[in-house]
Structures are given as C-alpha cells and as structure tokens.
TrEMBL record:
Family: Belongs to the 5'-nucleotidase family.
Entry protein name: NAD pyrophosphatase/5'-nucleotidase NadN
5'-Nucleotidase C-terminal domain boundaries: 388-530
Claim: Nucleus is one of the keywords in the record: no
SUPFAM superfamilies from the UniProt entry: 5'-nucleotidase (syn. UDP-sugar hydrolase), C-terminal domain (SSF55816), Metallo-dependent phosphatases (SSF56300)
PROSITE patterns xrefs: PROKAR_LIPOPROTEIN (PS51257)
NCBIfam families: nadN
Ranges for domain Calcineurin-like phosphoesterase: 34-249
Length: 570
C-alpha cells in the first residue's frame, strides 16, 4: 500500500514541476483522428442531375442529396478511429425547401447525424437573427463563430460559442469557428445587435487562450473561403487543421469524370507562421460530397501526416457501366444508398411543397408580354418598340432584393414566356423562370458596363441569339442594331437611388450589378461578366425574388416606360 501511494505521489510531483497538470500528460502522446466534414449544402435536399464526361463520353448521373450524406457520414463514424464530424456552414438558402420551410427541413435532416460542431455561414443570416435563432434552437450540436458577437438585444445572445473542446482517447482537441465577416455583414441581413470582428485577429486570440490551457491540437472550422484560409494559415501559429467552406471548393482529382477541381490536392498542405504543417480541406457543395481527412499528430501535438479525399455520392441504382467502372477504380467516387429515415422526412415535406406551389401570391390584371427583341410580333406586347414587358419587371425584382445594387441586368432568354392575367401562383412563376439560377452581385466600372452591353447585343445581332438581348432595371440606354459591335449602345443612364432620377453613366465609377448566375458566368454572350473575379453569390433563387415582388404588389404591372431600359431602338 505504501509503495502504491508513493508511485502516485511521484507522478503528481513530476507533473507539477514540469509545468503541467496531471490531465495534460495525455496531450504528449501521438494521436490519430479522422475528420468527417461537409460545407455549403445550401438546402439542397434532393439528389440532382450532374453532367459528367467519362472516356470522352458525356453521361448524366444522379449525385448527392442529404439522405446520401447521412448514410455516408454514419458509415465513416462507424469505421474511422476517433472520428470528429463537422459542418463548415451555409446549411441554408438556395432551394424551395428553404424558401418555403426556412431551416426546418435542414435541421431535421442534420439531426440524423451526430455533429461535433456547426460553423455559422454568411447565408445563415439571410433572414435575420430571429429566423436564424429558430434554426439553431432545433440543431443538436454546438454552434461556433469566434468573430460573431451578439449583444443582449439579439436572440442569438449566448447561443454562439467561439470554440469547443472535445476529447478522444483522453486527448483534448479544440475546434475554433470563424465566419467571413464583410460578406456576412454587407450581403446578408444580420441585425445591428451583431458585431463581426476581424477573422484572423479573432482566431489568433482564441488559439492563444487554448494554448494557455495546455491544448496543443487545434482545428479551425472556417467559413472564410479557401483563398482566405491559406492566408490565415500563414499568418498565425497554433492552428493544425482547417476545415473550410464558403468558396465551394472541389479539392482532389476528378478528371476521370470530367470535373475540374480548384486544387488537385486534398488536403492542401501549407505552413503556419512558425513553419509547422497546416492541412486545409473543403468538400465541395450542395450535398454532393462528404470529406474524410485522416490526421496523425505527433507527441508534441503537431501534424505528422494528413491524407484523404472528398467522396462524391452517386445513386446506388445507377446502371451506367462507365460510371460503375470508375467507381470501382477510384476511391473518391462512391455509390451510396439513401438513408431511410432521411427519405421519410423528405417525403413528408415534398407533399407539402407540391401544395405550396399552388399557393396564390398575387394577381395580374392584364397579360404582360415577352417579345425578346423590340418590334418582334411573336407575343402580345402592347409597346412593340420596347420589346419585353416582363423582363424588366424581373430585373426590378433582382434590384429590390439586393441591398446594394446600382442596377440589375436580365437576359431575354432567361424569361420563358409572358405572364397571364388572373391569379399568380408560385408554380406560375417557376414556369416563367424555370432555371436553377441564383442572384449574383459584383462591381463593374461604367466603362465595363458599356462593353458588357455591346457584347450582349453583338451576340443578339451578329450571332442571331435573341436570348442574349439585355434588359435591366435601374439602367436605360438607346440601342441601334444597324451599327457595328462597339457602337450599338449609347446614352447609358443609371438611376440615382437618392434622387430617384437617371444620370449619365460615369465610365470611371464603380457600380454594383445584380444579375442571374447563368449570364454572370459569361454565358449567352455576356463575356465581360466572366472576367470579373470577385463575385458574391447570394444563393437566393432568382424566381423567388420575383415571387417576393409579386407579394408586395397585389396588382402586378409592367415597369413604367420611364424605367424601361430601352429608351429607343432602331
């Protein structure tokens, strides 16, 4: 008995005089973990069609869906050692599931997974503090964001934590959260009761706090974007792993199915400020993939090795032989069965969604026509010289939905018909605007705006693409189709929001443009859009912006002539 007490006393003595507590002894052992992660699922609940190219053959496959995400994560949690499961933000916004049910469906499905933490993304704030709080109250996990500070007047007060400490095999691992500050504050809708602090300063502060507690393994759960994560890693000490989101980055090699990733490496391995290894990963977007990062820490808490891949989740019932063969050859491609509990939840909401689409959202007294090009007589437009009556109205919906836009642009081909008189349902709007587009915002100089319009009208008149014809709201111009490219657009004016009067465009001034995601990528001849690198995807469904407009205007009407973008047409 005496000998036994002496051994315990000796351990305590060594611990005290080595400057650590007995609890910290376990921190000085090698440690292995697998970090399971997703990001930016954006209410993409159902599986979706994706175009692939295998052995030079174009094929279509069903990918993802949250029921497959649940299956894959549960499989990994059962088979991986000391697993840690994380969501790097932007669970919300992007499909009808969110538009109709807000975060209700996402919360129920996410609760089928045992998460260690969820990081707030910028789009979690799209409908304000109260709506976000409803979603977070339903989640069975810890909510992180070290740089988001809520005061006592916000319902989010004390709900969001800067970090979480978890234990695996008696080892403590810290998870710090960080949200992209500027974009959240200015492109989303947080209240004035929230403060968004500098990302790097906030992370650095809590890394030091955790170090003082003897914790030497730190994961950063980041909704900051891949480029920013790389910068952050090089500017601070003490972060070992970055599980990222926001930039929707596909990482790894997927050339075998014709998908181009932003980085061939999963993970990207870089160096911290003090020269130590930092491993950075993301798992693409839209419930298409689940990442699994295997990490080995040495006895000092530094990363010794990290490896893994993001699995793309394909339909169990696929019959395409080339895809099946690729799945057999490449571990980053996976055939996954949908989780039954998840499917039950989705089914219950799908039936409600079908009913919701029949909901009447407004009334139209008189048919609003859609001629793609002025003087085209294919549709019942009352003022033929102005072309479409409905396209500028849709652009107005974009303009009003944006908090900062100087004007909006909409291509004629993005609108599929006119709008019939009578009651307007959500289903009617989706027939009018049937594509999977979201609203995109970015800055352009006045000079670039002029070039953009010239590109669009060149596509219309030089390449016979009527769908490229440019309409807008908050902007107007004269069009002469008989001139050559570069000379068709003149007398461009932009609406001054303060005076509500049009002013000549300033070629040297920067304007904020809002448009649909299709032409924002340079499609339909909008080549200038493709050259803009810094774009903000609001992930707001472009059709729902029109629904919102209709709801605020019980008797919908075309844009008044004074606000119509086509001042004159030859």
């Amino acid at each position: 008995m005496v000998k036994f007490v002496s051994k315990i006393s000796l351990v305590v003595f060594i611990a005290i005089f080595s400057g650590c507590s007995t609890k910290d002894i376990s921190q000085s052992k090698p440690f292995k973990t697998t970090i399971i992660h997703i990001n930016d699922h954006h209410s993409h609940i159902d599986s979706e069609k994706i175009a692939l190219t295998i052995d030079n053959e174009a094929i279509e496959a069903d990918i993802g869906g949250f029921a497959r995400v649940v299956t894959r994560i549960n499989q990994l949690q059962k088979t991986k050692t000391n697993s840690i499961t994380l969501h790097a933000g932007d669970a919300l916004q992007g499909t009808m599931y969110y538009t109709v049910f807000k975060g209700e469906v996402d919360a129920k499905l996410m609760n089928l997974v045992k998460w260690d933490a969820f990081e707030l993304g910028n789009h979690e704030f799209d409908d304000g503090d109260e709506e976000l709080n409803k979603f977070l109250k339903e989640l069975n996990t810890t909510i992180l964001a070290s740089n988001v500070i809520a005061n006592k007047n916000s319902p989010l007060y004390d709900r969001v934590k800067p970090y979480k400490i978890i234990e695996r095999e008696d080892q403590k691992i810290a998870i710090i959260g960080v949200d992209v500050a500027f974009k959240t504050k200015y492109s989303s809708r947080p209240s004035k009761n929230l403060e968004f602090l500098d990302e790097i300063e906030s992370v650095n502060k809590y890394v030091k706090e955790l170090k003082s507690q003897g914790i030497n393994k730190v994961i950063l759960l980041s909704h900051f974007g891949l480029e920013n994560d790389l910068k952050l890693a090089s500017q601070i000490e003490g972060v070992d792993i970055i599980i990222g989101g926001d930039s929707h980055s596909l990482m790894g090699d997927y050339d075998m199915i014709g998908l181009k990733s932003v980085a061939k490496d999963y993970p990207i391995i870089t160096k911290s400020k003090d020269g130590k290894r930092v491993c950075i990963v993301q798992a693409w977007e839209y419930s298409h993939a689940v990442g699994a990062l295997n990490v080995k820490f040495d006895e000092f808490g530094d990363v010794k090795e990290c490896s893994g891949y993001a699995s793309l989740l394909f339909d169990l019932n696929t019959k395409n032989k080339k895809l099946l063969n690729a799945v057999r050859l490449y571990p980053q491609l996976d055939i996954v069965k949908e989780d039954e509990k998840a499917l039950e939840i989705i089914k219950s909401y799908k039936s409600q969604l079908d009913k919701k689409q029949k909901e009447i959202v407004g009334f139209n007294k008189k048919y609003i026509g859609h001629n793609r090009i002025p003087f085209d007589k294919s549709d019942g437009v009352s003022s033929l010289e102005y072309g479409s009556e409905i396209a500028p109205l849709i652009a107005k919906a974009f303009y009003l939905k944006s908090k900062t836009a100087s004007f909006a642009i909409q291509n004629a081909g993005g609108v599929r018909s006119g709008l019939n008189s009578g009651n307007i349902t959500i289903e009617d709007v989706y027939k009018l605007l049937p594509f999977s587009n979201t609203l995109i915002e970015f800055k352009m100089s006045g000079k670039d705006v002029k070039e953009l319009l010239e590109d669009a009208f060149s596509s219309t008149f030089d390449k016979s693409s009527s769908g490229a014809f440019a309409y807008g709201y908050g902007i107007r111009y004269d069009v002469d189709s008989k001139q050559s490219k570069g000379n068709r657009v003149s007398n461009i004016e932009v609406l001054n929001k303060t005076t509500n009067k049009f002013e000549p465009i300033d070629f040297d001034k920067q304007y904020i443009v809002v448009t649909n995601s299709y032409i924002a990528d340079g499609k339909d001849g909008y080549e200038k859009f493709a050259t803009i690198k810094d774009k903000t995807d609001t992930y707001y469904d472009y059709a729902m912006s029109f629904v919102d407009l209709v709801k605020t205007q019980p008797n919908i009407a075309p844009v008044e002539k004074v606000y119509h973008p086509i001042k004159s047409f030859k």
